[in-house]
Design goal:
Elements: E1 8-13, H1 20-32, E2 35-40, H2 55-65, H3 68-72, E3 74-78, H4 85-100, E4 107-111, E5 129-131, H5 140-148, H6 153-160, H7 166-175, H8 181-197, E6 206-216, E7 219-225, E8 234-235, E9 238-240, H9 247-259, H10 265-271, E10 272-278, E11 288-297, E12 312-319, H11 334-342
Parallel strand pairs: 1-2, 1-4, 2-3, 4-5, 6-11
Antiparallel strand pairs: 6-7, 6-9, 7-8, 7-12, 10-11
Helix pairs in contact: 2-7, 5-6
């Protein structure tokens, strides 16, 4: 029946970078419904080899690939990476309700089940799924590897040219003139070298790390990373667990080594308010990294003296109220770790991305 036709189509992805299969997904959405919502994930992540393009840049590449008539029927929403499936799904639903003006809109979800990363398609039982099927072997990760793994932009574009829209190639030529490509190439290569070290291991490695969220009054202790991955980005103090330490002992040691923060053990024990494990498979660019994060709240007192050292180029106290404005400067999931303990975002409501 006509009244059962979807009013909106929903296409969800990171679009890092836009390729032909993703464009086909959006166009199928426009065939199925009068309007199509493109929900762009990892919208507020810092630039990295995994997330090289901002939300605004990804919107631009999609709009450039569409015809004028298609552009008029497509709307975009920014989806925060929260590394929590239930909260993420609630965020997507909230974004769709905001776009459509109702939580009762008839929506068709357009996607493709290709591997475990497609399990998110099951998180929207009220939205019938239109599976468009496999559209060739096109993967964003391989396209980014071609882009960052070559010293020659022309060679990189030639390698990916058959898999992306011509407008995306034009966008990349212009984007390459901005001061991002060389830094991302360097970080991609350092990560590739690190991955190569474990290539002969009998099993894929799983790394265990620790992090310390330290609060004094209305301020939190952050570092600026001095090494790749994430060199120059903000993070909470932390590092790899040592063989003969508990996770708590490693967290306290890393805190002292990176920031100089050191109090009596009894003070540390009293200030410890919570500990959580962050184990999302995609939380770290290094690979499978599980971290144990410890939250210390020292209440109202003078800020202890700190100084960046070891792997930290800088250590500083930052007002908690300023953290939302710094979200796009954080390494990996460290904003999410802070949010988990401090309730920075409080709910699934999205902020609007900053304009270009």
């Amino acid at each position: 029946m006509k009244e059962d036709r979807p009013e909106w189509a929903a296409c969800i992805g990171r679009f890092q970078l836009l390729h032909d299969a993703q464009l086909a997904l959006i166009r199928k959405g426009l065939e199925l419904a009068p309007r199509c919502a493109v929900l762009v994930g990892s919208a507020f992540q810092a630039r990295s080899p995994r997330n090289p393009f901002t939300f605004q840049e990804r919107v631009a590449t999609i709009r450039l690939a569409l015809s004028e008539d298609e552009r008029e029927r497509v709307d975009f929403a920014a989806i925060r990476e929260v590394f929590d499936e239930k909260r993420w799904a609630a965020q997507v639903r909230s974004a769709m309700a905001k776009l459509t003006g109702s939580d009762r809109t008839r929506i068709v979800l357009v996607g493709h089940r290709k591997d475990p990363t497609s399990d998110y398609l099951d998180d929207f039982p009220g939205w019938p799924l239109h599976d468009i099927g496999r559209l060739g072997e096109i993967h964003g990760k391989a396209l980014r590897a071609a882009l960052f793994g070559s010293d020659s932009l022309d060679a990189a574009l030639a390698a990916i040219g058959s898999q992306v829209p011509a407008s995306t190639l034009d966008f990349l030529r212009a984007w390459a003139q901005l001061p991002f490509l060389d830094k991302l190439r360097e970080e991609w290569r350092e990560l590739a070298e690190e991955h190569d070290k474990w290539a002969c291991a009998p099993y894929p490695p799983v790394f265990v790390t620790v992090d310390a969220v330290v609060r004094v009054a209305d301020q939190v202790l952050l570092i600026r990373r001095g090494r790749a991955p994430g060199k120059g980005l903000l993070a909470v103090p932390g590092g790899f667990i040592e063989q003969r330490e508990t996770a708590y002992q490693s967290a306290v040691r890393e805190l002292q080594e990176e920031t100089g923060f050191e109090l009596f053990p009894s003070e540390m024990d009293h200030a410890l308010k919570a500990a959580r494990v962050f184990d999302h498979p995609d939380r770290s660019q290094r690979g499978r990294v599980i971290t144990h994060a410890f939250y210390f709240d020292f209440g109202a007192r003078m800020l202890p003296e700190i100084a960046g050292s070891d792997d930290a180029a800088e250590a500083r106290w930052v007002p908690i109220a300023e953290l939302p404005s710094l979200e796009e400067q954080f390494h990996d999931d460290h904003f999410h770790i802070l949010d988990s303990f401090l309730g920075i975002t409080e709910d699934a409501t999205l902020k609007s991305p900053a304009p270009d």
